[in-house]
Write a structure and sequence with these properties.
Layout: H1 3-24, H2 27-51, H3 58-78, H4 80-83
Helix pairs in contact: 1-2, 2-3
Length: about 90
């Protein structure tokens, strides 16, 4: 194993606490955890592509980054009324 594969292994291991937290947290906190997990997954895909010497697979990481952002915007759009704390807070 080279250093890229070790790095991707550690990045995938970082996903587990975020996903567990996201499953148990409120919607807004889960959204933040999901966005962080998406960024870490993108970095894991980039390091896997480098580790396997398949730079053409980097496009998968780029697509994952765009879809993470787009998915976050869809989530906020659907749950904007529930996420807005209002004037009291």
């Amino acid at each position: 194993m080279n250093q890229w594969l070790w790095a991707s292994t550690l990045l995938v291991a970082l996903e587990l606490p975020l996903l567990c937290f996201g499953a148990l947290a409120s919607r807004l906190d889960a959204f933040v955890a999901l966005q962080a997990a998406g960024g870490i997954a993108t970095m894991a895909l980039i390091t896997l592509a480098e580790g396997f010497h398949r730079t053409s697979y980097t496009i998968l990481a780029v697509v994952a980054a765009v879809l993470t952002f787009a998915g976050g915007m869809v989530f906020v759009r659907f749950f904007e009324h529930e996420l807005d704390p209002g004037p009291d807070e």
